[in-house]
Amino acid sequence: MRIAASCVALAVVSFIARADTLVIYPVADNTLIEDPAGAWSLGAAGQFYAGRVGENGGNSKRRGVVRFDPAATLPAGATVTAVTLRLNCSATQAGTFTVSLHRGLDSWGEGTSSAFGGGGAPSTPNDATWIHRFYPDVLWDAPGGEFVATASASKSIGAVGFYTWGTTPGMVADVQAWIDQPATNFGWTVIGNEVTLQSVKRFDTRESPSTKPVLTITYTPAPDVLGDLTGDGHVDGADLGILLSAWGLTHPGADLDDDGDVDGTDLAVLFAHWG
After folding, report:
1. What's the rounded mean pLDDT across residues 162-180?
2. Which end of the chain is more exposed for a tag (fewer CB within 10 A), N or C?
3. Which superfamily does 2-16+223-272 belong to?
4. How many Cβ atoms sit within 10 Å of the Cβ of residue 91?
5. Cα-Cα-Cα-Cα dihedral of 204, 209, 212, 217, to 10°?
6. Please, are residues 62 and 194 in contact by the beta-carbon 8 Å criterion?
């Protein structure tokens, strides 16, 4: 009866979830410059562009692409609760226009092309362009990139300065998916006003050390599984073997009820969390 009571008491203990924060920076960014041949890109430039340029640029569109890698840093099983993206708008045409984040649907690259202006530089191997995912041989299914039509977040951008998108349910869902299924992480496509001429906005990239994009993720770590002595996320025969090998000893890891020794109460706790 004492073992059973202890088992029930420990099984119903509730734990307060701990919220942690992670700040990370892009692993890739680029500009898709509207051009039927995909001749221009900005893979290694200090800026990417979103919107539409004027007559000097051929009235063409610009779309930014940016990718972070939260799965490389966040602990397995983490639950994302909030996400914000901060970008520095370092140059702008007159007017306030909406700039939106759209979850990417296919992989893309970043070459060595670099230019100060939004006209771009000649595309280099692996650059993302208006028609290429990876220049010069791998194409998008449709010119202009592949992304979810519904925006994950939007922001009105006017004068130069720092702007923050989020947190929104769409951004949280995007980052959670990138953690749970890293192979589906194709970042965001950043889309501005593509109707109005000279609506383009310029944002600093990861090549701009003090003003590069910043992704801030608030998350709850996966709860510890009581009785998981092997650390594999399950309570099973391997954990039982460890507990039995420590029977009657002072063993901090196998002493599940923290009473100073390993005995029948610890065995009851382990069986309560079996599987």
Report:
1. 97
2. N
3. Dockerin domain (1.10.1330.10)
4. 14
5. 180
6. no
